[in-house]
Amino acid sequence: MEKFIDYYVLLNILPTANEELIKRAYRIQSKELHPDQGGNEKQFILLTEAYKVLSNPIKRKAYDQDYAFYQQTQKRDNERSQQERKHANSKRASESPENKPFFSFDYIRFGKVALGGFISLGVLAKAINAFEESTEPEIPIDPIVFPVVESEHSKDIVEESVTSEYDVGEIEESGVETMEQLIGIPEESEPLEDLIEESEQAEVEKTATLTFSTTDSLSLYVRYLDRIYKLEADLESYGKVWETGSDAEITQASYNQLKIWDDLLNEIYQTLKIELTEKDFLELRDLQRAWIAKKERIADEARTGFAGGSWEVPVYNDAQLEETKKRCYWLVMNYMN
Q: What is the pLDDT of residue 218?
């Protein structure tokens, strides 16, 4: 049976990619794999075949049917292999049990320790019972009640402490006025409900200002695509540095440009971390790790011819810069479109 070839993996795109993304991915990959550029001829032929199939709507529809069947077959094979490994492990464990005698030295020692513990608890319980029986009960002591002798002075105190209802009302009213003066409440203050409503409205406006999370993928797609185009336009002067600048200026410019694009890539990645589901983001994280390794490999190959020279670092940074640009566009087109 002929081996199935995953054209989406070959073009480094998702199965949901549109025609524009397929064309752009083919142009990027064909430049790297073209035989005239030192690429692999066999891989270039497969890449061209994948582009012809996926760019044709009829051929792509037929291929997607085979692709869905291939994915189901891979899933069943993986599940079957996992079950076979699990069965083999359980069988291997059942065929080689541990032959350990029941009455070993460890069991005997544990029995001795347990028996000693029970004996100690019994002795301790007997000692506590004996101590409780030997303790004499406490004798309650009658409280001493001192007689209250009524005097003229006590009558005066009682009479002074009695107040009328009118006096109590005046005390309460004066106490409220004193409390209002202490806490600084104005006489004509706004109702409490109005204050609560204003506080809640201010909190809602503050939350709306601070919250930066959106599920509108179209707005994200347009915004970041515009930023990529604008950044490319703003940095057109970067190419002139290679023609007229000194070695130090070229090196510094390569560092600056790489940092700008790398910051944009990190921002896109963090935005997708918020927008994507946990499963989709974990898949993207694995793809991102593989891409980082590929970027480092391409940059190392680019500076091979300049090893030891003044252009080794700029060429290395420039290779990473080009791969970072492509990655920014790829993330926006595949996950925000």
A: 63
